[in-house]
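Z., the sequence and structure:
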Amino acid sequence: MMAFFAGACGSLHPGAHHQPSAATDSYTEGKKLYDAGDFDGAETALRSAVAVNASHVQAHALLGSLYARTDRPQEAIRELEGVVNLDPANAQAYADLARLYQAQGMFEEALASALEAVKLSPGTERLYKLLGSVYLDKGDYDSAIRNYEKALELKPDSEWVYNDLGLAYLSAGKLDDAERQLRKAVAADPQLAVAHNNLGSVLARKGRLVEALASFRRALELDAHYQKAAQNVSDTEELLKRKARKKAKTGHTAVDKE
């Protein structure tokens, strides 16, 4: 992790450590404004908090969340890197960092942070799910599968983990395993559009186009704005039409030869 320095978030004023109440008051106000959706006001208050006390972990962590929510990933990363330097046992900060790194395509950094989060909180299902998703993005499908399976041990019948495990199996080309997990996902939550879409992808890869089309259509019914599902419906319908035309043409040629 890069070293944290106070100048990134406000200078440490002389005597700042003797003003804990001022930092706490600013943080409390910033949290109140953040929860109310006033991000500009919250940022001002939180910056005041860390200017008074550069080691205020909660203020830095909330600034990181604020920057992430306002589409400033590099600033969010800087704040959270500061948090884990100030508080090395903060599993949540490592998890948040991993997600930010992952979104920026920084997969080695994401993996290191996710591994640290799991090390600090080994009994947490969502952290194994996070680690699985990082391995999936890195193309390490076996490791992704192992971590998703660990997540399921900790929290059975999790529709999202079934979905992600199915996607990992699909990426690894293990279609039967993928279908099995994705059917568990849609059974656990029949309203989960992404699982229906992913099941359709598996069925299409297995050549079962009619079943695939039904899954894609179901995904689109559940989420009318689901662009991937809409494209899959269109592509599969066209593929089925082509197959029907080819079949009809082949049948017509056979009749002519008679």
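Residues 67-156 form a domain with the Serine Threonine Protein Phosphatase 5, Tetratricopeptide repeat fold (CATH 1.25.40.10). Residues 1-18, 253-258 have pLDDT under 50 and may be disordered.

Let me know what you think.
H.
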